[in-house]
Structure of Mannonate dehydratase:
Amino acid sequence: MEKMGFRWFGEKDDPITLSQIRQIPGTTQVVGALYDVPVGDVWPREKIKNLKNQVEDAGLKLEVIESVNIHDDIKAGKDGRDKYFENYQQTIRNLASFGIKVICYNFMPIFDWMRTDLKYQLADGSNVMRFQSAGLEKSPEQIIDDVQNGSNGYSLPGWEPERLTTVKGLFKEYAGISDNQLRDNLQYFLQAIIPVCEECDVKMAIHPDDPPRPLFGLPRIYKNIDDMRQIEAMVDSPYNGFTICTGSLGENPSNDIPAIIREFVSRNRVPFVHARNIKFDNEQGDFHETAHLSDEGSLDMYEIMKALHDTHFDGYIRPDHGRNIWGETGRPGYGLYDRALGIAYLNGLWEALEK
Ligand code: CS2
Ligand code: MN
């Protein structure tokens, strides 16, 4: 696939190098971000330029940013959010001037994805992330403390030790915010930034809630096809787009991913796809992550790729979380080897579809 990418966490934080990424066959794009700019601040041109140059010097392209995160004042609809809109608009302009075409973001209150186990061992000896609802009976505070004291070494995104004190306060700010209010806050944000996106030719691509179900009483608004239709209608523009994350949406067994792809790719609303598989552990929808292959998980990756092919998808795509294999110990879900195998597999399916 022409715009196959690989997520990279930057020189400082990622044990994987750009030259390793360059050697994954069929990979042309790096999906990157600045990790040292506080949420809500403008991304400085100089830093974007450095990242861009690094990626291009390695023989790769940087056209997708994941993520430019959204300040909680915007998500919670606080007074004073307007200054963050201006900052976000400026960040879009700065990114556009270095050739960025897509910005992935999410609108999950407080956290990014949530798992209860970052190092679950599969029968083959590899490690993956797992989600069990039983682990969630505890209060968020208790879970936060457990994660903080956990032995995994890595924290969940948004649960980093330096952020945890603020996080406890943030729960109060979201108390009583309904799904509808969160939707209004997203619409207000999109109305402020999409005109700038249109002007700069940068597409926004919202990432699904992961897992796509209510958590800790916090509102959640991108869980299924109905949510997507509501988000699509908020601002009628192809620049108001989606990241279709097959794993995240697939974590709800009633989401039909090929049908979602067929509907939204046909309407030109999908600039970015995350392709990965998961496997359900029981009827309650507890799941763990797996290798990308259909046979390894519960999702039919052939049908997913076929839906993309049939709808002439020509956006950006990347493998998502993989297993940690072959002795790898880095960031959960973001090792080199299994994601590289994922790329080879996805490109193989695509070549067969093309022929
Ligand atoms: C990613 C998300 O690691 C992942 O699962 O797909 O963290 C994603 O980067 C964000 O939700 C997008 O803002
Ligand atoms: Mn994803």
Notes: The domain at 5-354 is CATH 3.20.20.150 (TIM Barrel).
